[in-house]
Amino acid sequence: xxxxxxxxxxxxxHFFEENAYPDFKITLREDALTENTxxxxxxxxxxxxxxxxxxxxxxxxVLKKFKNxxxxxxxxxxxxxVDLDYCIKNRINVLNVExxxxxxxxxxxxxxxxxxxxxxxxxxxxxxxxNINPKKYEGELLNKKNIGIIGCGKVGVKLAKxxxxxxxxxxxSSYKDIPQFEKFCNVVPFxxxxxxxxxxxxxxxxxxxxxxxxxxxxxxxxxxGVYIVNTSSVELLNLEALYNNLLSGKVLGAxxxxxxxxxxxxxxxxxxxxxxxCTKENYKITEKLLDMPNxxxxxxxxxxxxxYIDYVLEHTFNNIRDNLKGIYTNRIC
Length: 333
Hints:
By secondary structure, the chain is α/β, with parallel strands linked by helices. Helix content is 35%, strand content 14%. The chain has helices at 13-18, 41-46, 60-63, 84-89, 102-117, 120-128, 154-165, 190-196, 216-221, 239-248, 261-266, 280-290, 306-324, and strands spanning 2-5, 25-28, 49-52, 71-74, 93-95, 146-150, 169-172, 186-187, 199-202, 226-230, 251-256, 295-297. It has a seven-stranded parallel beta sheet with strand order 8-7-6-9-10-11-12, sandwiched between helices. It has a five-stranded parallel beta sheet with strand order 2-1-3-4-5. Strand 1 (2-5), helix 1 and strand 2 (25-28) form a beta-alpha-beta unit. The radius of gyration is 21 Å and the shape is elongated.
């Protein structure tokens, strides 16, 4: 069975050197699959499975060129880069990787928090300019701080446990059914979390219900001097409201591990993992955020470790095999 594999990273090549899949004919490509991609007539006719990452944008115009497509496997949790309506109408199965990188994302989030609260980026920029002013770099201890975790699934729980080792108080407004969770977290109403948290951490999959769950009204309810960290979906956060509150000083710092894909494309750079269409307003705000010394913006790095890249690839092929057998593992549609 023919698989076209797009978005191949250098770090993924060793996986295929060490693992054989003789039941598939795999063609590896480093580019993303978009409406600008040119393939051969044979590839359009014979490809049964597409394996992509989020930088591939699978619109109807892309998908309708494939005559015998049966399955799309995305090496990501998010799948908004795939036209699900078209796939449902044409009986094309779409698979994702449900969970991955919990430890890596939690560790990365903690790194952003430490960087922000200890002014590491500010000091680094100043020392490059040979303009050192220690008074600017005065930081804060995490000890006894309140961290509010919005979206306390597996990643949130990992971070909560680590935060407890720093003697932080963990506030959570909602969480999945996790045994003994209340022993190390304080479950509080959402508004109470906003009002009492020194650090607010967002990690949840984007849905229509939680679009801009942190907006202008929510910022008003926060205490002065709060830090905001988001390692999940950019749609959870109103960037304009974040920018305004950074300017006013109510938010002391922010760490964002995802950008909107069209912002990156507009800079003529490789796509870095955003899933949404970027408005002109957000494009301008992102430009301003990048210039702020108290804002950390990274290109979707939180999960990006050798261990989890291998994990995602292994589970992607396991998902494909299961679904070919009629076992609907991680099937979206």
